Amino acid sequence: MAEQRHSEERRQFRVYEIFVQKDHGSPHVWVGSVDAGSPEDALVLARESFLRRDPAVSLWAVEQGAIHRTDYADRDFFAQETDKRYRTLAGYSKANAERWRRYKRALLDLEQDFVRD
After folding, report:
1. Which of 31, 67, 69, 92 is the most buried (most CB within 10 A)?
2. Domain spanning 8-66: CATH superfamily
3. Residue 91 CB: number of other CB atoms within 10 A?
4. Which residue has the higher pLDDT, 1 or 86?
5. pLDDT at 29
6. d(CA 82, CA 74)
């Protein structure tokens, strides 16, 4: 009987993800997980586990089951709708680099002509 009650109590424990904010204006950062029977207990356990040495101004305990996440296999979710290579260095070809060099040379030539006049 006592064993059954202990097993029921153990099932009520949930995993809480813990986030700490070190100072005002900084983001909350995930620091780990705790098993607790309630959100209040999770905060106490988190304080004892993660804030022994470091100061903080805020602590979040989020039940792991309440976190919605993407699936690693769902590549379509992260697919970009349009080609945005122009935003990265890889989007610039050698031809574009050469055009840019010619443009800068032409500007220098115009500038020198302007200074001569």
Report:
1. 31
2. Phenylacetic acid degradation B (3.10.20.520)
3. 11
4. 86
5. 96
6. 18
